[in-house]
Write a structure and sequence with these properties.
Length: 105
């Protein structure tokens, strides 16, 4: 679970970071606001990637799921994030499912 979910979150952090200039140029968002919102989401994704799958850190799965919803919600400003958010949410759910299915006891 640690590798699968952490990989999804790290790749998602890259996509979230790349949404900052898109929000500024296409959506005409204020640079400070776009940097703050997407920067916090990207940093949260990296933090969750560092702790997901560790013993006693089940809350990280909930946090990652909430992050998926937040990324989808940023589609209000950058419509492409609706699609990207849904793709990453599907990868997130698939990662959890596969990890639990093939977890060695």
């Amino acid at each position: 679970m640690r590798r699968l979910c952490a990989t999804v979150l790290i790749m998602e952090a890259v996509v979230i970071g790349l949404a900052i200039p898109v929000a500024i140029t296409i959506a005409h968002a204020r640079p400070a606001a776009a940097g703050l919102i997407w920067g916090v989401l990207a940093a949260l994704a990296v933090f969750l990637a560092a702790v997901v799958g560790r013993p006693g850190q089940r809350w990280a799965l909930v946090g990652g799921s909430l992050l998926q919803l937040a990324v989808i919600a940023t589609g209000v400003v950058v419509p492409a994030m609706y699609g990207l958010g849904v793709i990453f949410a599907a990868l997130w759910v698939t990662g959890i499912w596969l990890a639990r299915r093939y977890q060695v006891p």
